[in-house]
Amino acid sequence: MAFSASPLKTMLFALLLLSTSTIAQNMSNTSNMTSSSDGCDNENNHDIPKNASGTVQTDNLYISVTLGDYRNETSRLGTFKAWRYGYLSAPKNSTAQACVYIFDAIPDAKEGDQLDGCSGVLSTQCIDYLERSWQLSNTTGSAEEELSCPSFNTQSSDFKDACGSSNLNGYISKAINTANTTCALSLPPNNMNWGLPSDYETYPVAGALVSPYDSRADEFKYYEIYAKQPVPFVIADVNMGKAQTRVVCVAPDKAMNGSHEVMDTKSTGAQMEMKNAGWITMLMALLVAALLV
């Protein structure tokens, strides 16, 4: 599953938003698509659905990811388009500049138990490589200047040697200047409980449609799968002349009130398919046995 949005998918999602019967699972996304003078419509993504989220703390920064969908029973498109979106939260007095890289979610994995969430998701070799190689300069601009995030070659032999076994694929990135609060959110979107300190602000990073997805209003197969998949983040930042790179992994596995609860299980992806198939096989066997009695 590529963590990117094609023009066709974006158009389909826009059509869903225009449908009068389109709602989110928890009825929390009721704002209209309007323009604003601050130019932050896309950044604040008011109409992106949010039904579940997860948060990981790394030093004084918090990284969060959301998952949400609009479920429209009358849609002729046959599926409900879902969004995954990433956020960075920092203290209000922060002057840090950060390049946040969001990778494709890792299938058939579960968020790790360690503080960074990456144990069992990314290899130690891969994490060490990212922290060592994806560094910004200590002299990267001033707090008033816009940061330009460097691109990294995920096809290089060094990257593949270090991270090839971790299924770490394409990424999207965004520069965040925490000294510029024009597009910052004073609270997490939809008042989600991320456990942030009271003096923190949240900066939307980037997101994309995920597919394939569920096609019935009472179906949550893919929602469950994507909610359990950890999303790797690389945060390369410079603060007060000191550069640092952190790697975290977080899954949007905590549902909002009114949204479908995410099953507490390690089965994801193909493992979940096999589990469901096993139940069907067992039920068929019981049925045959009953007919033979």
Overview of the molecule:
With 293 residues, the protein is α+β, with helices and mostly antiparallel strands. The chain has two domains: 7-262, no CATH class; 266-293. The chain contains six helices and ten strands, in the order αβαββββααββαβββα. The protein has helices at residues 7-18, 41-44, 124-133, 157-163, 221-228, 269-292, and strands at 23-24, 52-58, 61-71, 82-91, 97-103, 171-177, 200-210, 231-239, 242-250, 254-255. The strands form two sheets. Strands 1, 2, 3, 4, 7 and 10 form a six-stranded antiparallel sheet that branches. A four-stranded antiparallel sheet has the order 6-5-8-9, covered by helices on one side. The radius of gyration is 20 Å and the shape is globular. The N and C termini lie far apart (47 Å). Residues 1-24 form the signal peptide. Keywords: Signal. Residues 30-53 are annotated as: Disordered.
Provide a concise account of the structure shown.
By secondary structure, the chain is α+β, with helices and mostly antiparallel strands. It contains six helices and ten strands; from the N terminus they run H-E-H-E-E-E-E-H-H-E-E-H-E-E-E-H. It is globular and about 55 Å long.
